[in-house]
Design a protein that fits this description.
This protein has 149 residues and is an alpha+beta fold. The protein is built from three helices and eight strands, in the order βααβββββββα. The strands form two sheets. A five-stranded antiparallel beta sheet has the order 1-8-7-6-5. A three-stranded antiparallel beta sheet has the order 2-3-4.
Length: 149
């Protein structure tokens, strides 16, 4: 069984600025209401340490592996709960250029595993809300950064 959450937002900033905000993990605690911290590098085959806290939910730390880190286009990682197949999540951030100074930021995650039926309700509510809050906060950060130039 697989389920996917997909959210998106238009950002009035070029892909380079959105990518800079997305991959500046050191600043996540200052602006990101959902992914409270990340340590590691946005580089393929590296392991990250990610702490998320969905709105109204408990915080959780996990250690995903970066699958894709394509400059100014996509960051994707795979996280697992304990063992493969129990509960897996492939998290994706895609930056689609709409014009020179505008992008669509797509924030999604494909979930699978034995625990998915038990967890889907909270994923579809709290986690979706967390994605949307992060999207709005990223938009503010990127547009403010663009205005500083």
């Amino acid at each position: 069984m697989k389920r996917e959450l997909i959210t998106s937002i238009e950002v009035n900033a070029p892909a380079s600025i959105v990518w800079r905000v997305l991959t500046d993990f050191d600043n996540y605690p200052k602006w990101n209401p959902f992914i409270r911290s990340i340590s590691g590098a946005a580089k393929q085959d590296t392991r990250l340490k990610v702490y998320i806290q969905p709105p109204g939910g408990s915080g959780m730390t996990f250690h995903p592996v970066v699958l894709v880190a394509e400059l100014e286009q996509e960051l994707r990682w795979l996280g697992r709960l304990f063992v493969p197949g129990l509960f897996d999540g492939e998290h994706r951030f895609i930056i689609e250029s709409l014009s020179e100074n505008s992008v669509r930021f797509v924030h999604s995650e494909a979930f699978s595993g034995l625990l998915l039926p038990l967890l889907w309700r909270s994923l579809d509510t709290q986690t979706r809300q967390g994605f949307e809050e992060m999207n709005r906060a990223l938009k503010v950060q990127a547009e403010q950064l663009l205005n500083e130039y």
